[in-house]
Amino acid sequence: MPKGTLREVKMEPSREMADRLDTVDELAPFRKEFNLPAGVVPLNGNSLGPLPAAVPGAVAEAVRQWGERLTRAWNEDWWHAPARVGDRIGRLIGAAPGQTMAGDSTSVQIFNAVVAAARLRPDRRVVVADAGNFPTDRYLTASAARLLGLEVVEVPMGDLPDAVDRHRDEVAVVFCPAADYRTGELWDVPAVTRVAHEAGAVALWDLSHGAGAVPLWVDDDGVDLAVGCTYKYLSGGPGSPAYGYVAARHQDRLDLPLTGWHGHARPFDMAGVFEPAPGVARARIGTPPVLSLLALEAALEPLERAGIEAVRAKTVRLGDFFLGCADRLLDGLGFEVVTPRDPRRRGGHLALRHPEAAAVMAALKDRGVLGDVRGDLLRFCVNGLYVSFGDVHDAVTALREVAATDEYRSPRFRRREVVT
Amino acid sequence: MPKGTLREVKMEPSREMADRLDTVDELAPFRKEFNLPAGVVPLNGNSLGPLPAAVPGAVAEAVRQWGERLTRAWNEDWWHAPARVGDRIGRLIGAAPGQTMAGDSTSVQIFNAVVAAARLRPDRRVVVADAGNFPTDRYLTASAARLLGLEVVEVPMGDLPDAVDRHRDEVAVVFCPAADYRTGELWDVPAVTRVAHEAGAVALWDLSHGAGAVPLWVDDDGVDLAVGCTYKYLSGGPGSPAYGYVAARHQDRLDLPLTGWHGHARPFDMAGVFEPAPGVARARIGTPPVLSLLALEAALEPLERAGIEAVRAKTVRLGDFFLGCADRLLDGLGFEVVTPRDPRRRGGHLALRHPEAAAVMAALKDRGVLGDVRGDLLRFCVNGLYVSFGDVHDAVTALREVAATDEYRSPRFRRREVVT
Known about the structure:
2 copies of one chain form a homodimer.
Chain A: H1 15-24, E1 41-42, H2 55-69, H3 72-78, H4 81-92, E2 100-102, H5 106-119, E3 126-130, H6 135-148, E4 151-155, H7 160-166, E5 171-177, H8 189-198, E6 202-206, E7 225-228, E8 243-246, H9 248-251, H10 290-306, H11 308-329, E9 336-337, E10 349-353, H12 357-366, E11 369-370, E12 372-374, E13 377-381, H13 389-404
Parallel strand pairs in A: 1-11, 3-4, 3-5, 5-6, 6-7
Antiparallel strand pairs in A: 2-8, 7-8, 9-10, 10-13, 12-13
């Protein structure tokens, strides 16, 4: 590694070691609960988790309900699905029931949450936010701020406490991600939440790259509002509904801009004026995409059964093994590890910088190793629920072969795809 | 009929007549393209269209793509699905390609459209809107107006031209539904659009209860912006994604509040500042719910093949037959027809007022006749694509039996369900 500090590796990172670790891995049986395609090393679960084996049947059942029960299915099952799925996600992020609602896209949830968070501090005009947050978070924060006449102060996470302090009496909202979408670096949710609260601000978190990868404790940490995506570590499927968390103490004065009729206190009264439902039900918006929502519900089951702590522990071991393999196999090939080596500061994916990241990833994909690219970073997700140590060894070995032979310089890996 | 004016019925509304009409119905074969449950009369397609026979396979294929192709499916199929499905919906509403985008819920589309419409007239402060529009339209208009500092003037459709005239130089947006969600009354899209334009305002339409039921010509009518729902007359499935239409002439200065990363000019550059994509692509928001979106896509095919004009013509005949049956069978039983008898003023559903509408509908459902209730109105959808004349006769006969025998007064039909 040219720039990373070499970390003492307690095991010899080899194929034999990978096989040995897989043999003793108590979570190994969970791999069979995902329909992984043959010949593929699935290290892109930070972008789209693989298909849980229970999902095809659950989706077929949802389609059957539609066909056979028609509108009657709303009363029999569907109407309560957003709250039911929300509560199940809530358990994974440390939220007691009645505070998490599933629905809509992460972008929509972000807009709703930023406006509502700012309205909890109507006398304050500043949002302090992570400058490294995922772009859609930044775009929607800017849009919400423009509508409300707020100033957005974007700073790197390291400078955030100072920035909050500088704007101490003006900060309405502090908005950060639980993990950096580029490097996988884990941020300190309780510490930053305390910083926000000490300044009298509301703490809003985007849990997209944290939930399902690491245990979160939004209730214990005093988080005010949170949003998150479900198609990464929750394997809910492409574009599966996002979720919003609203701490119970804020619910009854939560003033959301997306006042859809499903969030009305009595939606079927068809009243002319919006009256928010009690509790987190007001965070419902329009009719949820039921097929995608019920796919997500079925997807949660393996993670719930394995337990987030066990998955996290294995993810840490997989990350250590990845770094060990990288140190041994990638030395001198132009890669730089940008994810913290301290596992306490690492989420579910690791990132390597390479000047030709896109071409390297295209060559990797050609060999069946799936990761993704953000700028000059190659990202590899080591989700302990279904990734094996063998996968990690195969991926780093492929990386070595692609880079050492200049395979990635082939013109066929130069084509730009829409989604990278 | 106690209050409606009796209309001359050119046919004797009987079971025999229904069978004869079904025998000569050229659209009758399309009924087989929907998986209708046995023993059910499906007159609630204005709430949730039935399951098209092609959908289970299409959804299974989308799940297969997820499982086998993982993120690669984004480039192979999914990324372009919102525009592709949008264009197909566009053809059904008279929009040339490149102006319609599928995604998100109708509520979210409404918010986005109201804000963007108002921003097209930044020097004006009034929104004139139909006071009888669907509640979520009214709630989100109020929310958008609050954020932008606009005044909302809600009036019945009949008073709308006068209201626009009264606020002539201040009206930014005129927002109306293509059809009244309660009575099914069809509004005059070109005439109201002209009224808006003559006052210098932007015309925004909610096509939810019109698209798929009646031919619409948004391009020819000069509509500026439109939104719509796809799970009613487009049979896209529970909570299938909605759509937004933006006339080409407005696209490049359309300033949407929901600036999700999928609407960015170069989403995978991960830039820090939102730069809207050219054309209607800026109306994308977050990651769309792919399973629900691809179900919708498959659902459109039978309607496209039958042709909206043919479906409309049969829907008119079904409506005439419904009214003929109602006049003959429901006289003196406390029902009032509130849908216009003139088929040119009627959309895809008919509404009967009854003081015990909820109980009557519960008793009807118990007999397998599915309609729905809004307040004291019973709604029955006569979608020509899959409803038969026999269905209509069965439904009105059941209505007669339920009302004439006081069956609906049974305590078991008093239970309030969440979704009515």
